[in-house]
Design goal:
The protein is mostly beta strands. About 5% of the residues lie in helices and about 60% in strands. It is built from one helix and 15 strands, in the order ββββββββββββββαβ.
């Protein structure tokens, strides 16, 4: 592939006060065994902060956009990532997953650990045009948030086939883990995410 890096280094008053800014542009490159049409980003280093801005990865019709910032002294960081036109089957890593789910995926992810005691992460995932073996599946949406005190997960998997509403505490408070579905809908879940079929086995009951 083709890679181009350009940067400027400035020193103000003393050697500790350095600012570096630049750009990284590439075409037809391989990252983590995946081929990308483009990987581009800007970078800045100043006041112990290393920032990677406007990170863009293009693969077929999919785009992944991100920003990342880290304090090189404290090792605390924050990051943001979004996807568009992301088809799971376009990525080689998909073939290594245990399940048989093929889907368009939209992801929004944010994490911030820069301030001690106020760490937080949020994840939103949407699945559409999903299929698994002979099942054509309804849309799914899942929202999760995490901080030093709790993990919250809420959403619907395959329309209203499976509902999740859970709150897990890390400070000895009572937690709740709620998953609502029936056996027939759970079969779809096993095939999609675990590659397990219940054919030839009798399964009865209801999970609440």
């Amino acid at each position: 592939g083709n890679i181009k890096v350009s940067y400027k280094v400035r020193c103000i008053d003393k050697i500790d006060n350095i600012k570096v800014d630049g750009t990284f542009k590439s075409e037809n490159v391989t990252l983590l065994d995946e081929n990308f049409k483009k990987i581009n980003f800007d970078f800045v280093y100043e006041n112990n902060l290393m920032k990677f801005k406007d990170i863009t990865l293009l693969k077929k019709q999919a785009s992944i956009k991100s920003n990342f910032e880290i304090n090189v002294e404290s090792k605390r960081f924050k990051a943001q990532l979004t996807t568009r036109n992301f088809k799971m089957s376009d990525f080689k890593a998909h073939s290594k997953l245990p399940g048989e789910l093929k889907s368009d995926m939209k992801i929004n992810f944010n994490i911030n650990t820069l301030v001690k005691g106020r760490e937080i992460a949020k994840l939103d995932v949407e699945l559409s045009d999903s299929v698994a073996r002979n099942y054509k599946l309804k849309e799914s949406s899942l929202a999760a948030s995490f901080n030093s005190n709790e993990l919250l997960v809420k959403g619907n998997i395959f329309g209203s086939d499976i509902k999740v509403d859970s709150q897990i505490f890390f400070n000895n408070r009572p937690s709740s883990l709620v998953l609502k579905s029936n056996v027939e809908n759970l079969k779809k879940f096993f095939v999609a995410f675990l590659g397990i079929t219940t054919k030839g086995h009798e399964v009865n009951g209801r999970l609440l």
